[in-house]
Amino acid sequence: MKKYGILIFLTLLFAGFSTDQVFSQSFLKKVKNKTEDKAIEKIFGKDKTDQQNQGNPSNYPNQGTSGSSGSSSGSSSGANNNRGGGLSNTAPDVKANIKDAGTAFDGKQYSNARFSVRQAILGIELEIGKQILKGLPESISGLDKVTEEDNVTSSGIGFVGLIIERTYRKGDQELGITIGNDAGMLSMANMYLASGSYASTQDQNHKQVKFKEYRAVLEYDESSGYKLSVPFGQSSILIAEGINFASEEEIMSAAENIDIEKIKKELGEQ
Q1: How far apart are CA 189 and CA 185, in angstroms?
Q2: What are the contacts of 217-222 at 24+ separation with CB within 8 A?
Q3: Are 127 and 146 in contact (CB under 8 A)?
Q4: CB atoms inside a 10 Å sphere around CB 251
Q5: Where are the domains of the chain?
Q6: Pairing between β-strand 225-232 and β-strand 236-243 as defined by DSSP bridges
Q7: Whole-structure pTM over 0.85, yes or no?
């Protein structure tokens, strides 16, 4: 039964990439379903690293469309590195990892098979994120997109987080758009919506609003500005953060430029 399970899963992955339309809706829904994560864990089991990482996204290696840089203090001899090309942020090769997973599984190398399946899903999620970024507006309310700040981050599996980020900016005004399958962000917004206290006239920092057809939370902070959180689908959220917007009407109008229904379909959400 175990072998049938992995073969079915891999067949689904192969089927999704066998046509020119790489990301068909039915394929994306299967990839995004939590059931597949449980199936992989059942087939391959959980190793100690996974148990340590569970519930802690910072322990997962993030990969994005924009790179990051860091600094170090150099070696103990005092020498500093002044050559090197850095690290590539190229997404994992989906087809190659699917093939590797099948080969490893046939050889009963279950840990390697499990790793390759995760890498394949990571590659798919990063590609989904890049496609969503392509569909976002070039400019919003006179603010131009900052291409070099586009970013997609994914844990690869388990709904720990697929995060898609874009920034629009002009002068001192900025609009940050975040789209995510992220349990932490989603639970916070749902808590606001479920709590009657946030509808109280005594709370001047949070407000329940209607964004298109969705219930949402609008927040205001004197130092950070406006923040609109819109849960949608089964597990996704849209966040629009506005700095130096004159009013809640202005930030709501800017957020209206985001086609949430299109994003919902691209994520395979219902």
Answers
A1: 7
A2: 217/189, 217/192, 217/193, 218/248, 218/251, 218/252, 220/248
A3: no
A4: 23
A5: 2-67+92-129, 137-266
A6: antiparallel
A7: no
CA–CA distance, 226 with 245 (Å, rounded to integer) = 7
C-alpha distance across the termini of the chain, in Å: 30
Sequential pLDDT tens for the chain (270 residues): 444 454 445 444 444 443 333 343 444 444 444 445 555 555 555 554 444 444 343 333 444 444 334 445 556 778 888 888 887 767 778 888 889 889 999 999 989 988 888 888 888 888 889 999 999 999 999 999 999 999 998 876 544 578 999 999 999 999 999 998 765 666 666 666 666 555 555 556 888 899 999 999 999 999 999 999 999 988 889 999 999 999 999 999 999 999 999 999 988 876
| Nearest one of 27, 1, 2, 25 to 114, comparing CA atoms | 2
* Structure tokens belonging to residue 3: 């072998």
d(CA 99, CA 192): 45
